[in-house]
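queue> holo job accepted (pyridoxal-5'-phosphate)
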Amino acid sequence: MSTTLRNSLDELETPALILDRRRLDANLLRMREHVARLGVSLRPHMKTAKSAEVARRALPQGGGITVSTLREAEYFFGHGYHDLFYAVGASPQKLDRAAALMRRGARLLLALDQPEAARAIAERGSALGLAFEVMIEIDCGDGRCGLDAQSSALLEVAAELRDGATLAGVFTHGGHSYTGRSPDELAAVAEQERRAVTAAASRLRSTGYDCAIVSMGSTPSVTHARDLSGVTEVRAGIYMFGDAFQAGVGSCSAGDIAVSVLATVIGQYPQRGELIVDAGALALSKDISTNRFDDERNVGYGLVSGDEGLYVARVSQEHGVIRRRGGELDFSRHPVGSRLRIQPNHACITAAAYDRYHVVDGDSPAVEAEWDRVNGW
Ligand SMILES: Cc1ncc(COP(=O)(O)O)c(C=O)c1O
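queue> job finished
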């Protein structure tokens, strides 16, 4: 849903979430072209944007999407997306809600890697008189969820899928790409993902399963992937917005970051070399991804756009403390009452605090639209 507004950034109360439509569209196009060159489909992960308007721009021809909550699945279904992969293990209590969406016409793929989950899903599907479509998660080295592609557990889990469940495919997420330091390291994670997920698919196929979908992806690994033979789709998500962390690992440049938090300077402390803004932990989040504060890639809780070296060094609930790296802070540029735009360290978690985007076009201060977001579960 988008409502056209005609006000300016200066009129917005802060903190506010700003989305640069021009940068967004450029990021979306770049990924579509890259994925087309790699010869796979893009099933973008909507966990970052959580916005139907962004999904529409990400997939101008339509297509399947990935979601991280059932609430997202319901919201996007309501906006015309009928091919949905809920890529977080589905707990048994959620199955009736998933089934309700399927009865309304959704193709809803469920994720699992535990035999108990496979059994529960098959039993519930059978009791409800439908077949849940399931994606088995493979661990490619991230160490969060997933089975080893060579493990006996893979075939055991698949064997649990009868009557009320069928195997749609396998997927993996190379979350350890976030610790990568160079294009070669990130390409190596992409190759780990590809090998793990295609090996799992081969084993399942040679045992008699269809395993039509072979899905992988994180933004850093997909961006640096060189060959995706055997993979059918990728699930990048944060590429849409980029953030200071992604710029640090080379998934985008600082000039590509489409999302920022508008904040107001509420204090100057020249004796400490610090400005205070009205965007703190709740407005920016405290997530610094896999950055460490002793790391040269550390960008604190965000970078101030348009004034190189300024970053959010500390946050408390509603206060952000801005310092300058490598030089003196020019206080005359940031009087009390002036506005700053802060590029978040990790955009997914920052955006989660807001129910809407104020959309601008490049450097223009005019707010051209508000786009909603679907938060919660
Ligand atoms: C299962 C899964 N797939 C895909 C993604 C997308 O990764 P990124 O946000 O790096 O694009 C995530 C992100 O957490 C994920 O958990």
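queue> The mean pLDDT is 94.
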